[in-house]
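Input record (one chain):
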Amino acid sequence: MPKQIFINLPVTDVNRSMDFYTALGFVNNPQFSDESSKCMVWSEAIYVMLLNHEKFSTFITKPLADTKSSIAGLFSLSVDSVEEMNAILEKGLKAGGVEPHEIRDYGFMQQRTIEDFDGHTWEVFFMDMSKMPAD
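The corresponding structure, as predicted from the sequence alone:
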């Protein structure tokens, strides 16, 4: 079995969050979804579990972070082009996401940032390694 990553996020409204992540390009896996959680698939190796606060709390021993006012993690997704990055962000913004700052251009990499309803922060980026500065 290939190694996979599951990112577990506490959300206030599981269905609204699922709609937002669907707009970004994630696909729901109903096999691992129920009323309190939704499994959202980015790729064969990357999954985001959207868990309501009650269910999320069963897995933790510390208080939930207030991700509306503080950053608890920064998640990044690579894409195949600037156009794909822009399309994902535009769909996310139309679905209610917030873009906290303008695009960042590092020459070899362009990056845009979007926050979901609960303040979870995602960076979507395109990297062109042929433009990577040589040491």
